[in-house]
Write a structure and sequence with these properties.
alpha/beta; Rossmann fold; 2 domains; 12 helices; three-stranded antiparallel sheet; single chain; 18% strand; Chemotaxis Receptor Methyltransferase Cher, domain 1
Length: 294
């Protein structure tokens, strides 16, 4: 079901507040039919996005919208997309990628070069792929000799299969590439029908996987985890669980990168040392995983 034009949509204030009974129905339907656990997400963000779908479907009340969800699989898909959508672009917050290029990656790759073992990088909540692809571009552009000798694996995960399909295609509107240096645009992108197609050599460096973060993933061992602007959607207990899981997953001395509005909280602070508080880059403390029994 498509969005109506703005002048036909009622204002958000015209829609009654979503009551606990209706929210229970929406939670149940999302869990039963999609496996999406709404209870982990912040209420304010969830309510806003559900109300957008109530408006878009011209449902008179939240209860009427629940009836629509019961019988319309297309609307269930639309709601799921509204709840999980992430807007991204290449080299978002460029100073973070500058520090990765200048400090973090040289150290990680030097360690792996000494042991000959694989370097594993994980982009969590990767959306349409800009973040892991930006990391791949840095590796190809600035560390080409090293990655010829060191096995490198970039894993990118998201809960939304449709978004991941778009990521694999690597086709972007020009605005998504606005912060990429012109030299790198010329080298790694090609014009295609008014958009920009990322080079296959970069696309092939990233493996995309559909994954619900709390159900799987923490058992993989990584040298660098990028989880930016994902935690802000979760309630605090789930944020702490996420951070503890990352500490367990990171190799000793591995790095975690959070979003600019995110930080360490609660017991998880025991497992990380700040590398750059401004850029939200942290290092896993020795034996962090073992401290948790991981």
């Amino acid at each position: 079901m498509s969005l109506d034009t703005p002048n036909t949509l009622p204002a958000l204030t015209d829609i009654p507040e979503i009551g606990p009974e209706d929210m229970a129905v929406i939670r149940r339907l999302l869990e039963e039919r999609i496996g999406f656990h709404l209870c982990r997400y912040k209420d304010k963000c969830v309510m806003r996005r559900i109300n957008i779908r109530i408006r878009a479907t011209n449902s008179d009340t939240p209860t009427a919208y629940c009836r629509l969800l019961e019988h319309d699989g297309r609307e269930m898909t639309q709601l799921y997309k509204a709840l999980t959508i992430h807007v991204s672009h290449f080299f978002r917050n460029p100073s973070v990628f500058d520090m990765l290029r200048d400090s973090v990656l040289p150290e990680l790759l030097a360690v792996r070069a000494g042991t000959g073992s694989e370097a594993v990088f994980w982009s969590v909540g990767c959306s349409t792929g800009e973040e892991p692809y930006a990391l791949a571009i840095i590796l190809r552009e600035y560390f080409s000799d090293l990655i010829k000798r060191i096995p490198v694996r970039i894993i990118a995960t998201d809960i939304n299969a449709e978004i991941l399909d778009a990521a694999r295609r690597g086709l972007y509107v020009v605005e998504r590439v606005a912060e990429v240096p012109p030299l790198l645009v010329d080298r790694y992108f090609a014009r295609e029908g008014g958009k920009l197609r990322l080079a296959a050599e970069i696309r092939d460096m990233v493996t995309f996987r559909e994954e619900e973060i709390f159900s799987s993933g923490f058992d993989r061992k990584c040298d660098l985890i990028m989880c930016r602007n994902v935690m802000i959607y979760f309630e605090r207990p789930w944020q702490e669980l996420l951070l503890k899981g990352f500490a367990r997953s990171l190799s000793e001395g591995g790095f975690l990168v959070l979003g600019k509005s995110e930080t360490m909280i609660g017991e998880a602070r025991r497992y990380f040392a700040p590398v750059s508080p401004v850029e939200r880059i942290y290092r896993a403390l020795p034996a962090a995983g073992q401290q948790q029994g991981g």
